[in-house]
Amino acid sequence: MKQPRPTELWAWWLAVAWLALVVLVALCADFLPLSYPAATPDLYAITQPPFAGPHWLGTDPLGRDVLAGLIFGARTACLVSAPAGLAAAVIGTILGSAAGYWGNQRLKLPAGLAFLLVGLLLFWGCFTGPGPWFLSWLVVVGLALVAAARLMRLSERVAPQPLPLDTIVLSLLALLTSVPQLVLALAIAAVWPPSLSTLVAVLTFTYWPVTAQLVRADMRRIRQLPYMEAARAIGLPTWQIMGRHAFPLLWKTIRVTLPLSLATLIGLETTVSFLGVGLPLETASWGRTLATARLDFTAWWLIVFPACAILLTTLALRQLPFYPFGKSS
Amino acid sequence: MRRFLFPRLARTLPAAWGILSVIFLLSRALSSAPEGLTNIQGASIGGHAATPDQIRAAERLLRKRRGLDLPLFYITPAATATKQALAWRWHWHGTHNQYHTWLYSLLHGDLGRSFRDEQSVSMVVLRALASTLPLTCSAFVGIVIVSYWLTLLLARHRWLRPAVLAGLTVLHALPLFVVAFFLLLLLANPDVLALFPAYGLNRPESDTSWGEQLISSAYYLVLPLLSLVLVSLPSLVVQVDSALQHELKANYSLTARAKGLPERLVIRRHALRNALLPAISYVADLLPALVAGAIVVELIFAMPGMGRLLAEAAASRDFPVLLGAISVIVLARLLAQIVADWLQVWANPRIEAQA
Asked: N- to C-terminal Cα distance for chain B?
């Protein structure tokens, strides 16, 4: 184990301290003794410069306190980026590792299952389709009887069909990456009415391909390793191979990408709120505070403070994977 | 050529069709109330408030004109009352539906009409493209030139590396709109340095000469260009730089140095050519990314263009314009990917031998 350099240690602990501060502020934003409440315009102090009470970081052109806006913006940033990043990581890991592990040929579905699915679909289709329902009911019962009789023999004769899992996931990825992330997020956020949970869903939807691509490539590499072959050879069940033997190696990749994706998501969230899409108007956000600077470019405090918050958080998140001690480095 | 082009088209065209269809179906299915009706409801011209019947008739007319009275897809579920309860049933509508009409006119190059002002979307998009393309193309050229120059500089003068790389890291951590704001704050602020105009485009005057017009419009483009270049620079420079450092440690670079070549030539003739290979696919992604970046830049600097069109269409739920703009971006991405693939095969023939 190599000895960590003091600058690495310092940088890492600084990053952790800043992130802890952001999370702490976001958690107890409601109980902090603010000198002025959030989201209430002070019409006597419009565009007031900072470092004078009660508005210690100044006010925007609508008379809202910048400090309170930043604190509640930290809550929004945490509430949006953390669930979206985690959900994107989970979806990306599941789909990516499944595509990487089974590929196009290896996941074999028994033919009986396919027949059963088709039968269920037909059953449901006849039931909800146009036409007098009692007639379709009769047809369905007849079909089901025939299918049940056939199922026993067909499933013995027809070989299990491979499910082209890799192709399915890859085409999903191609679908989502054919438009730049910001454009896709903008288009989908425009369709739904703005709310916090919508924005989380939209960001998850646009961001999971990044994790999925990495995990898929990693899984394809891990699958070839000798110990995985040994695990298959002694006949371990698939869930045990995936969970207990492949996942610890995958976790190295995920652990590095998760903070980076959180940083990107905070950037996306602030950009989308800056554009005025996605979040309801009364929700505070660092991007919203910056957007008010468009009304008055000379108000430097409207740009510098939120920009510093975004910059420090992003830098801290990027520093996080460089864990200076322990077995990872 | 045929063996090269067709497989790639077969791979990328379905993805483009798929994402456009998804956005179309989502936007049509979820926007039940057509935009513009709120105006009718609120309007009372000359003291005459519209009666509910009149509002309903106006809504029906508006829906018919926009083609929203047709069913959405080939089969849609519809509620029908049975004896017991309301039940959902699938209905087959044939080709007389919104999706088919949209796809048919899209394939014929007709993007429909804007919900807001009934203008032809193709005209709106073309006009926006005409003012965006100078910005994005010059930003593209600027990024490529500056990163080439910066990478060479970093390779030659190693003492610059820590400072420049740290600066690039900080720059990479900032979203585009923050960088643009900082530029505005520093370079277009009467309190600090009022070098450049804060927003707008040059309005061409007929009596000035062509050269003067070009210079003055370039003067307005400096800040938007600078912010686009600054934001896209870090990732490209860091990537090429690390590849170059890797190549400079390779054996053939050692040989080149050993036979007495000056370091300048070792970098340019030998190492850089190999280091540029992985950058090709990144550069190809740059053009669509620049269009997306133009969304923010055009909004901040109040310029007309593709990005502003997208942002305003998204904010006002003008779905034909939104879809039209996205189709153009998807098309640009498709072309860029094919060109990048071709460039990669041209630069490194080993790829085709493997495939």
From this structure: 15
Using CB atoms, pick whichever of B176, B181, B315 lies closest to residue A293. B181
Q: How far apart are CA B311 and CA B331, in angstroms?
A: 19
Q: Is the Cβ pair A179, B333 closer than 8 Å? A: yes
The mean per-residue pLDDT over the stretch B274-290 comes to 82
| Banded model confidence at residue A329, pLDDT cuts 50, 70, 90 | very low
Instruction: State whether the Cα torsion A252-A258-A264-A267 is positive or negative.
Output: negative
What are the tens digits of pLDDT across the range B15-63?
Answer: 888 888 888 888 877 765 555 555 555 555 555 666 778 777 877 787 7
Q: Does the pLDDT value for residue B265 go beyond 50?
A: yes
Judged by CB atoms closer than 8 Å, whether chains meet at A271 and B288 is answered as no
Q: What CATH class does B121-354 carry?
A: mainly alpha
pLDDT band at A316 (very low <50, low <70, confident <90, very high): very high
| Pick among A137, A179, A300, A320 to test the B interface (most B CBs inside 10 A) | A179
**Nearest chain B residue (CA) to A183:** B292
- Phi and psi, residue A208, nearest 5°: -60, -25
> Is there a contact between A180 and B89 if contact means CB atoms under 8 Å apart?
no
Each residue's pLDDT tens digit, A32-58: 777 777 777 777 777 777 777 777 787
Q: Residues of B with CB below 8 A from A259's CB?
A: none
The answer to whether the CB atoms of B322 and A190 lie below 8 A apart is: yes
Using the beta-carbon criterion (under 8 Å), do B181 and A277 form an inter-chain contact? no
Structure-token pair, residue A247: 């996942």
Q: Residue B198: closest CA among chain A residues belongs to which residue?
A: A297
Listed in order, the ranges of chain B carrying CATH 1.10.3720.10 are 121-354
Q: Is the pLDDT of residue A134 over 70?
A: no
Look at B89 and A310 and tell me if their CB atoms are within 8 Å.
Answer: no
Q: How far is it, in rounded angstroms, from Cα A249 to Cα A267?
A: 29
CATH annotation of A6-107+164-319: 1.10.3720.10
How many whole angstroms separate alpha carbon B250 and alpha carbon B197?
A: 49
Q: Say whether the peptide bond before residue A54 is cis (omega within 30 degrees of 0).
A: yes
Rg, Å, chain A Cα set: 27
| Whether ipTM exceeds 0.90 | no
Residue B89 has pLDDT above 70, yes or no: no
Helices (H), chain B: 2-30, 37-42, 52-66, 98-107, 121-156, 161-173, 176-187, 210-248, 251-258, 263-265, 272-275, 279-300, 306-315, 319-347, 350-354
- Percent of chain B whose predicted confidence (pLDDT) is above 90: 8
For residue A154, the distance in angstroms to the closest alpha carbon of chain B comes to: 31
Domain segments of chain A as ranges: 6-107+164-319, 109-162
**pLDDT exceeds cutoff 50 at A328:** no
